[in-house]
Amino acid sequence: MNIEQLGDIIDRYLAGTATDPEKSWVEQWLQQRPEDLQSLAPETQNAVHDRLWQSFAARAGWQSARPARIFPVSSKWLAYAAAVAILIACALWLRPATDHLPVVQTISAQPGSHKKVTLPDSTVAHLFPGATLTIPDDYNTKDRRIALTGRVFFEVKADAARPFQVTSGKIVTKVLGTSFEVMATDSLHAAITVRTGKVGVHFDGRPLAELTPGKRLRLHVQRQDFSIDDVNAAMLCEWWNKGMVFHQEPLEEVVQALSGWYNIPITITNEKWKTEPVTIRLRNLSAGEAVSLLSQTLGFRYKKDRNNIIIY
């Protein structure tokens, strides 16, 4: 695991959007300090997240657009934050020195709300709830490079002189002008869906495929294998207009999308349902109505526990 993946996992854990394997990994890491097994309170999550980000930005020399917030934090969590900040700082320190320290802008869509952003080159990005874009200050000079976590659909302004490139972990997607979606909601799975034009997908420096309209590449990062299938890209990608459409996607990934869209924790306690494939369209439904429809379709049972929904 590289330092970028480590930071992504911790960000998702603190935001409450990590997958079960990622939660297990972080909790195992935390439990290396056996004196502390308590769960994270929301205020502590926010405080640690901000302190991690501030430490990261300060050591990287970046100018953070994220507003600073101050919460009381216990010494043990400051120790955790410091440990991760040191890891990140060491990784940055090991990079070759440059005369120019990059300035970046970070744009996020909060859980429960999506966001539409127009970039300096007139490219339009639709951020699914919980997604984040990182845009360097030299964007649209020699090229157009950005990084993301989460799920974002792009309508890229054509410019043959400045290729458009999206990085998420070890996955790099390159285009000149087209519309496509990148979904990298955790460190284990990713998907790239092309609506128009042509997209080149690379992983860890090697080319995987060139995708044409209606093609979707699904990658299992840990196993480093991928598959390509035919999908209705217009339906899958325009979730802000046409509702959320899923095509043969595991219930675990569907539930993760619903949790972000409705900003409600939804968990699956019965392992057998996690990999159950789902093909369904969910539009103009409440969270309860969406889970009820999934229950009727697949046959699982569920219950509400305060603000949580538990599938079993």
Automatic annotation (TrEMBL):
Residues 106-199 form the FecR protein domain. Residues 244-311 form the Protein FecR C-terminal domain. It holds the Pfam family FecR_C. It comes from the Bacteria. Signal peptide: none annotated. Gene3D superfamilies: 2.60.120.1440, 3.55.50.30. This is FecR domain-containing protein. It comes from Chitinophaga pollutisoli.
